[in-house]
Structure formats: structure tokens, C-alpha cells
């Protein structure tokens, strides 16, 4: 009988390895053994041996002193292979390029992962004032237009299960009350797009739409514009262009 059929417990060493890599992925830079041990609570001796093993395999790197640790290059290779092999990313390339040309602003494709969105593709604006978001970055769904567009495809009760009553504030404009967020998501459903007005980054407004190739939606696209460059006419053009891009992507991903 297979392990899954017996309800067997996860392999402790495998769980610790994944948790360790996720620790480094969420905290850029180098960290001491004491820092890692304090955060994860593993016995220091077994943590040290696990770190040394991952260093030898290339998943973790050390500084010149050999006493501080950070994510290794093999993690990048695996992450890149995920992007390269993703069917939605492939299907969206032409639409993202066209959206970038038509709006002249920064365009993102992201995926909902729990209560966060992870960026899968980006097209940078040519303007001097432009936002910068790298592929692989993770942000709270409630503070982004991408995340709100995706959360709006879920029933209210499911959102209450996913999110705590009090939400993290990334700026003074972030919606931190779950019920207030749910009220905004009702508006998102009605008009078909979400807006983040400096809720994630001061000085930046973003518009997002979910790609409806599955329900609830998993992926969304957005357009980010510095407030200094946002006029009423530009805002209307961005909204219309995004909705047209959503319709094109709905066709391009209908087989997925």
C-alpha cells in the first residue's frame, strides 16, 4: 500500500529542507546560523548539518567567512524552469507585449498562491518614472489590484476563511478590514476590474483583471502607473485596454 494511502506522516527531513529554503526565499541576503535557528526552531546541530548539505548541493550559499547563509543558484534554476514550462505564461506573451505597447506602462502577470500573489511575468515601462517588480516576488493579495481581481472570483464566505479579520497595512491606504475589502470586491465583480490606489506602494496606482480560463480564477494581469503620470483620460484608456486584453487571454487560455 502506498504511503499516501496509509496516511503516513511527512518525512521530517524533507519538511525541514523545504521550510529552510522558504525561509531564505522570503528573506533576501545572508543570515547567521543563530538567526535561522531562532526563526525555525530546529536543533542547532541538525540545522548545521542540513545547511552544509544544501551548500554542497548548491541550494544554499555562504559568505566568504562560511558563517552566513543565503539562497543558492539552484533555486533560481528550478524557479526559471517553472516559468519556462508554464502554459499560461506562454499563452500570455503576445497579449502582454501588446498591452505594454498600447499603454506604455508596466504590465504584470501574477498567480494567486494562498493569500498572496506571485509575479510570473513583467513588461517594464519605458518611462523615467516606472515601478519595478521582479518575477518571483510575492505580495499580499488584499493590497494589490491583481490579488483583488482574483479574490473577487471567490464567494464571500471563502474569502472569510482565507483572510484574517485584520489585514496587513503596507501603506496608509491599504484596506486592513476584511469586511471592507469584501465590500470592495463586490464592486470589482460588477465592473470587471480591480484598482489599487497606493495600497501596496505609495505613488503607484494599479489596475487588474482576472483571466477567466477557470473559476475561481488563478491568474491575473495588471497595469501599474505612477500617480504623477495618471490623468483621467489615461486611466480610462488603461481600463479599456486591460478589459480587451482579458478577453483575448480568455480565448488564448480556453484550452487550459
From TrEMBL:
SUPFAM superfamilies: GAF domain-like, Winged helix' DNA-binding domain. Transmembrane segments: none annotated. It comes from Streptomyces cheonanensis. Gene3D superfamilies: 3.30.450.40, Winged helix-like DNA-binding domain superfamily/Winged helix DNA-binding domain. The keyword Transcription regulation applies. Residues 11-73 form the HTH iclR-type domain. This is IclR family transcriptional regulator. Residues 74-256 form the IclR-ED domain. InterPro entries: GAF-like_dom_sf, HTH_MetabolicPath_Reg, Tscrpt_reg_IclR_C, Tscrpt_reg_IclR_N, WH-like_DNA-bd_sf, WH_DNA-bd_sf. PROSITE patterns: HTH_ICLR (PS51077), ICLR_ED (PS51078). PANTHER family: HELIX-TURN-HELIX TRANSCRIPTIONAL REGULATOR, ICLR FAMILY (PTHR30136), HTH-TYPE TRANSCRIPTIONAL REPRESSOR ALLR (PTHR30136:SF24). Keywords: DNA-binding, Transcription, Transcription regulation.
Amino acid at each position: 500500500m502506498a504511503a499516501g494511502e496509509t496516511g503516513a506522516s511527512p518525512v521530517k527531513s524533507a519538511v525541514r529542507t523545504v521550510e529552510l529554503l522558504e525561509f531564505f526565499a522570503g528573506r533576501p541576503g545572508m543570515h547567521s546560523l543563530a538567526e535561522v535557528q531562532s526563526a525555525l526552531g530546529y536543533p542547532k546541530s541538525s540545522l548545521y548539518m542540513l545547511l552544509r548539505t544544501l551548500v554542497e548541493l548548491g541550494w544554499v550559499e555562504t559568505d566568504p567567512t562560511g558563517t552566513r547563509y543565503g539562497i543558492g543558484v539552484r533555486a533560481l534554476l528550478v524557479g526559471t524552469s517553472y516559468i519556462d514550462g508554464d502554459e499560461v505564461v506562454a499563452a500570455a506573451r503576445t497579449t502582454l507585449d501588446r498591452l505594454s505597447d498600447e499603454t506604455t506602462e508596466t504590465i504584470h502577470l501574477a498567480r494567486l498562491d494562498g493569500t498572496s500573489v506571485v509575479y510570473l511575468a513583467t513588461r517594464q515601462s519605458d518611462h523615467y518614472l516606472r515601478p519595478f517588480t521582479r518575477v518571483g516576488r510575492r505580495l499580499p493579495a488584499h493590497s494589490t489590484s491583481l490579488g483583488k481581481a482574483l479574490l473577487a472570483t471567490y464567494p464571500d464566505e471563502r474569502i472569510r476563511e482565507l483572510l484574517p479579520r485584520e489585514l496587513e497595512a503596507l501603506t496608509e491606504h491599504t484596506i486592513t478590514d476584511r469586511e471592507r475589502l469584501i465590500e470592495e470586491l463586490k464592486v470589482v465583480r460588477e465592473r470587471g476590474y480591480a484598482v489599487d490606489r497606493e495600497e501596496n506602494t505609495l505613488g503607484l496606482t494599479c489596475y487588474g483583471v482576472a483571466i477567466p480560463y477557470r473559476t475561481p480564477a488563478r491568474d491575473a494581469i495588471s497595469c501599474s502607473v505612477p500617480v504623477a503620470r495618471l490623468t483621467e483620460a489615461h486611466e480610462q484608456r488603461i481600463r479599456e485596454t486591460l478589459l480587451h486584453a482579458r478577453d483575448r487571454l480568455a480565448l488564448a487560455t480556453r484550452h487550459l
